[in-house]
Amino acid sequence: MAQPKLSVLVVEDNPLDREAFRRYLQQSANFDYVILEAEQGEAGLRLCQEAQPDAVLVDYILPDLSGIEFLTHVKAAMGANAPPLIVVTGQGNETIAVQTLKAGAEDYLIKGQLGPSSLQHSIEQAVAKTSLQKQLQQSETRFSRAIAEAPFPIFIHGEDGVILQMSHTISDLTGYTACEIQTIRDWAERAYGDKQQNVLANISRLYAANQRIDEGEFEIRTKSGENRTWLFSSAPLGQLDNGTRLVISMAADVTEQKQTEAALTARLKQQAALAHLSQVALSGVSLEFLFEQTTQLVADSLDLQYSRVLELLTDARLLLRSAAGGPSELVGQFTIETDADSQAGYTLTMQQPIVFSDLQTETRFHGTSLLRDYGVVSGMSVIIPSHSNRPFGILAAHSTRRRDFTQDDINFLQAVANVLATAIDRKRIERELHQLNLTLEQRVQSRTEALEEANQELEAFSYSVAHDLRAPLRAIQGFAQFLKEDYSAALDDLGTEYVRRMASSSEHLDTLIQDLLAYSRLGRADMHLQRTSIAVVVQELLVELESWVQTKQATVEVASDLPLVLAQRNVLKQVLNNLLSNALKFVSPDVLPQIKIWAEVIAQSDHAAERSPQVRIWITDNGIGIAPQHQERIFNPFERLHGIDTYPGTGIGLSIVARGARRMGGRAGVESSLDQGSQFWIELASA
Ligand code: ADP
Description:
Shape: rod-shaped
Low-confidence stretches: none
Strand content: 15-25%
Radius of gyration: 61 Å
Bound molecules: adenosine-5'-diphosphate
Strand order of the largest sheet: 13-12-11-16-15-14
Largest sheet: 6 strands, antiparallel
Number of helices: 18
Mean pLDDT: 91
């Protein structure tokens, strides 16, 4: 197997020595030595630079240079690339040895004591050592570069307080140059200001650690005065030759992350505040309380000192309605002109949110004493809208520290103003509604009075009809009767017929008047509903109508389970009387009336769930029936479907049925078709 090559430059003026060295080296079992030779120092120097041998063997005394000078020249010319140099000398002594080694020789050999193995050993040792040193140096260079170029802050520092190395990122992020922070003390002083003692105490503990320590977050101040948050962790990094313990401290710059987190937390706080405010606004509290809550909430959520509500008055002035952070004594008192040189006035003019970062340098408006006297530096203001053309006023928020408000902050303030606007509008509508209700009540009262007056007039009219009209009518009836009884002999057939018609007409008129009075009374009378038995009322009626039922040869079937209802007994009796009478009356002459009276409980529909159950009472007959198109109008007064001669009547009966049922809280109806009998019903509350 081929041996590895090793090139050696021999700088020696004595040819015999050169010869000896060559032989010694060529005997090597480990390397294939390539030997270059030079007789003089200068020539050797040139050859060394050209050929860059692995090692140089140089005579201590050359014709043109000393071995030491040669050494110095090689080191100067080749620097870190200089090959290892071994000095050989004929007359060795300790002083020469020390001198050569100090000058940078790897070894010092004495010609008389040299043999093949000692020469080979010395060269190979020197080559191996130099190679190791080179590797070490390269690795150190790589390490240094890795630290310097690391994309995050790294310090390497010793317990003596010296910063041995730091990454460029530190300067990039903080603005401090490596010269400005040569020691940990420099760093602590610049980055931590007042807190430097604490930080130094913390750092001093790191040197004793034998494993990584996560130190946590530190606020550092940059050269430009900005604050940044660094998350530090440190680890031991061995010791220097002199025993100084080293630590590597690394940091992650989490400033942006922290800012995002803080912004998010602020947004969440604002959202919660807005939700709370909406709730308060809906709960119908007073506007004063709502304004107070609003300004307090705005100041808290935005972490500001002041928040104010100003109301735009009709005289074009703005009135301070609420002030979180003060001045509370001016609330309800302090006013400013809208055209004044104020932030509020400017907001109204521009009709958009206004933001300023520094009142001192603000040029758009000067700001009133409300800002100037309270140390306001930054602020924002929005319009509180309203449904009318005029806005309600201004909502403002101010800080005594400089603050650059974000679009999110402005959006929040506007959202709060909008909630306020809704609440204010609600209040206005409530007020108007209240006012309207008041006038409504007044209107109802005056209508009621008018109605009562009209009712009294009607009462008077009814009285006059009952007494005044019926008195002459009874006179006519009486005289007709006299005529019939006392003068029947003097009257011929036609005269007798006239008298009969006169009597029957006046009788009809009397019934009509009585029916009308009953109908009118029903409209006015107070209703006192009581538990009433339908069965009892029907029985009484049947007794009263008994002779008519017999004459008509009618059958009346009454159900045995008629329930109790809420009714006024006399009205119910009148209603049932009218229905029963009609059932007996409106039957073809050749048909025997068959009447049924029964009742059922009506199933409740959903929307009627709150009403008490209803009972429907049916009176059905086998009479002439009613065509569908007439079924509604027959419940109106004077509506009749037949001539008075065929079926006598006044046309008031069913009107009384409908009105009676309605006045007792129920209703009436009919199901029928012509010639098929009729099924009349009334519905009343079950008792
Ligand atoms: P009146 O009985 O005095 O005529 P109503 O108001 O009681 O007045 O009835 C109005 C009209 O309704 C009657 O004239 C008749 O044409 C019709 N009517 C009422 N009840 C019945 C019935 N049971 N069968 C058929 N028609 C009826």
